[in-house]
């Protein structure tokens, strides 16, 4: 799938590239690099394709600007991703050419003659390979957690991610408290590996919009996974952190799912760091939260409360949510909503009436709690 042009121009040897036209094409995908240097028109028109990042000095067109125009016509025709010109013979282009490139979303850069073609090519190809590797590992994680596989196959796939894994593992899923793009996450993982001595038995991977840390260890482990995360700057000041139970390698699917379920809980409850073992009833809710059965259950309880609020401009659903958040404690619920306790009692009785649960007590609290937890996890309106 390659990388976007805007990602490429952040690379070390491309940071000083100056864009002269085609800004609308900065999101073009690049999956390989081509050199346009000595070809004539008939020779190179089929050499370049969609997704190419083409570099040139226009040596063959140094004395004829019309050849530059014809070259760019052919590159546009072949839908290349971008063109970079070494400023040996040209340090700018006529407005006519720039306007044409801009209309066709072809970014054109000028770069200094001191920058070697080879360094540019190496940087771009390493960037593409790095992103492709992240996608490969991400796809393996998806297979591990979403397929019905034997323990032996799970172990085999896990060792394909890292052949140095020890037999005992714990997994953490970390999501930044501020928005990070896919590119930002990959850059952060690169920095973690660059500035820390990462043990061969540890893998740090991009997964969805977070960072997955697979921490394998021997029985005489002295450092907890939480302490390890802090040592590589994945800490609760900057990240929501979710940590699985300890497992054997063959149960990698369970460990990863635990970290993901724990993170979903973490995001709902706004905890900065949490262990899967501490998420209570959510252990049962999370694996089934996306099923039609869970949806029907929570809608059957939440929808009547929402409809009542819309009809009478009341705060029945908010009261129900606070009541559950404060563990069905009337006083704490009242204090959090700046209401008298009797007001909250009246609303709770009204909720029972709406749901036709007037004669229930423990079962009412139980059903209301589960429905609200599902409602909060899904984070969608109904």
Walk me through what this model shows.
With 382 residues, the protein is α/β, with parallel strands linked by helices. The protein is elongated. It is built from 15 helices and 13 strands. Helix 11 crosses helix 15 (362-378). 48% of the residues lie in helices and 15% in strands. Strands 8, 9, 10, 11, 12 and 13 form a six-stranded mixed β-sheet that branches. The protein has three domains: 3-123, HprK N-terminal domain-like (Udp-n-acetylmuramoylalanyl-d-glutamate--2,6- Diaminopimelate Ligase, Chain: A, domain 1), CATH 3.40.1390; 147-286, Alpha-Beta Plaits, CATH 3.30.70; 289-378, Arc Repressor Mutant, subunit A (Orthogonal Bundle).
Record keyword descriptors for this entry:
382 residues, Alpha-Beta Plaits, five-stranded mixed sheet, Arc Repressor Mutant, subunit A, Udp-n-acetylmuramoylalanyl-d-glutamate--2,6- Diaminopimelate Ligase, Chain: A, domain 1, alpha/beta, six-stranded mixed sheet, elongated, 48% helix
């Amino acid at each position: 799938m390659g990388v976007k042009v805007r990602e490429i121009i952040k690379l070390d040897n491309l940071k000083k590239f100056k864009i002269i036209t085609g800004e609308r094409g900065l999101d073009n995908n690049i999956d390989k690099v081509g050199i346009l240097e000595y070809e004539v028109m008939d020779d190179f028109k089929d050499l370049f394709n969609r997704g190419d990042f083409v570099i040139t000095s226009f040596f063959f067109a140094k004395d004829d600007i019309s050849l530059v125009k014809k070259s760019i016509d052919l590159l546009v025709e072949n839908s290349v991703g971008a063109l970079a010109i070494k400023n040996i013979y040209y340090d700018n282009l006529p407005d006519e050419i720039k306007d044409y490139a801009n209309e066709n979303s072809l970014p054109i850069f000028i770069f200094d003659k001191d920058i070697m073609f080879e360094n540019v090519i190496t940087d771009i190809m390493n960037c593409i390979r790095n992103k492709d590797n992240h996608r490969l590992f991400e796809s393996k994680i998806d297979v591990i957690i979403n397929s019905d596989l034997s323990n032996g196959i799970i172990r085999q796939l896990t060792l394909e991610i890292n052949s140095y894994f020890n037999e005992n593992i714990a997994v953490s899923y970390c999501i930044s408290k501020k928005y990070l793009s896919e590119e930002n996450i990959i850059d952060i993982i690169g920095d973690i590996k660059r500035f820390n001595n990462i043990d061969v038995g540890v893998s740090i991977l991009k997964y969805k919009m977070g960072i997955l840390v697979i921490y394998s260890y021997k029985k005489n482990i002295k450092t907890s996974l939480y302490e390890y995360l802090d040592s590589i700057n994945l800490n609760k000041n900057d990240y929501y952190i979710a940590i699985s139970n300890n497992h054997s390698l063959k149960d990698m699917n369970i460990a990863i799912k635990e970290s993901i379920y724990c993170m979903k809980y973490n995001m709902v409850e706004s905890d900065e760091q949490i262990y899967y073992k501490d998420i209570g009833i959510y252990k049962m809710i999370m694996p089934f939260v996306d099923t039609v059965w869970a949806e029907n259950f929570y809608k059957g309880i939440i929808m009547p409360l929402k409809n009542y609020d819309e009809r009478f401009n009341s705060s029945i659903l908010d009261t129900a949510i606070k009541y559950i958040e404060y563990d069905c404690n009337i006083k704490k619920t009242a204090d959090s909503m700046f209401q008298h306790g009797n007001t909250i009692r009246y609303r709770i009785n009204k909720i029972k009436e709406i749901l036709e649960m007037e004669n229930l007590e423990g079962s009412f609290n139980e059903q209301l709690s589960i429905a609200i937890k599902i409602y909060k996890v899904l984070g969608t309106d109904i």
